[in-house]
Amino acid sequence: MPMTLRTWLRTPVMAVALVACAMPALPPAQSPAGDRAGGSGPAARAVPGAPSADMVEAGLRAALETGIDRVARRLGRRHGYWQDDRIRIPLPGRLAEVQKTLSGTPLAVPLDDLQWRMNQAAEAAVPAGQEIIRKAIMSMSLADALGLLRGGETAATDLLRRTTAPQLRAAFAPYVARSLADSGAFRALDEVTASWPLLAGAAADYKTGITGHAVRFGLDGLFLYLGEEERRIRRDPAARTSELLIRVFGS
């Protein structure tokens, strides 16, 4: 007997088909890999934003601290100043003139020795300079941290030097004076001035002057290489040795 429409609609197969048609359509499935590759999933949208001003300030301080530690290892070793043409400390004023006049003769030997001992004193004072600069880094004002981050490649170093130089010189001087005495530089200076009547009358002034001279040139060397370390951290990802430096300078 032919199947009527009512009978056909009551068959099990047709009942399943009708139920399926009545169900809402499901969205197309996406695999986790598709989310990552396609950029449409939550993981792809969770991109960290720019570092906050507080984080930038901490990062700039960390960069300077990392830099001065590296510089101290470089300059605080034996001949750190003496064998570096960029920062070798010359004799001051009249002493340098006499040294140049006598260069190449046996009479220049005491002056050459004095210069070597002065550089040796600067090297010995580097650890003290490192600690003084670290304290200055922690206390310096970074009111415009974001501006410094976007500034020149040595912007933080330049600010540190500009705002703390007088205090650094005053704090560094006693350590340099002690190192000059320990290195024999003052004794060598006495021998030089005793040998030259034109210099003998100003021996005491030379001792004061040579300390200030060594302080100034010693800090010049520290800041020169601190600026280079800051530049390196800004440019070279390999120089960013902490998560903070990566976060701030890699953004």
Terminal CA distance? 80 Å
Proportion of residues in β-strands: under 5%
Q: If you average the pLDDT, what whole number results?
A: 80
Query: From the helix content, strand content and strand pairing, which structural class follows?
Result: mainly alpha
Radius of gyration: 35 Å
Give a nutshell description of this structure.
This protein has 251 residues and is mainly α.
Task: Give the SSE layout.
Layout: H1 5-9, H2 12-22, H3 32-38, H4 42-45, H5 53-75, H6 93-102, H7 109-139, H8 145-149, H9 155-183, H10 185-195, H11 197-200, H12 203-235, H13 243-249
Helix pairs in contact: 5-7, 5-12, 5-13, 7-9, 7-10, 7-12, 9-12
Describe the 3D structure.
It contains 13 helices and no strands. The protein has helices at 5-9, 12-22, 32-38, 42-45, 53-75, 93-102, 109-139, 145-149, 155-183, 185-195, 197-200, 203-235, 243-249. Helix 5 crosses helix 12. The longest helix has 33 residues, at 203-235. The model is unreliable at 1-47 (pLDDT under 50).
Please name the defining characteristics of this protein.
elongated, 72% helix, disordered N terminus, 13 helices, mainly alpha, 251 residues
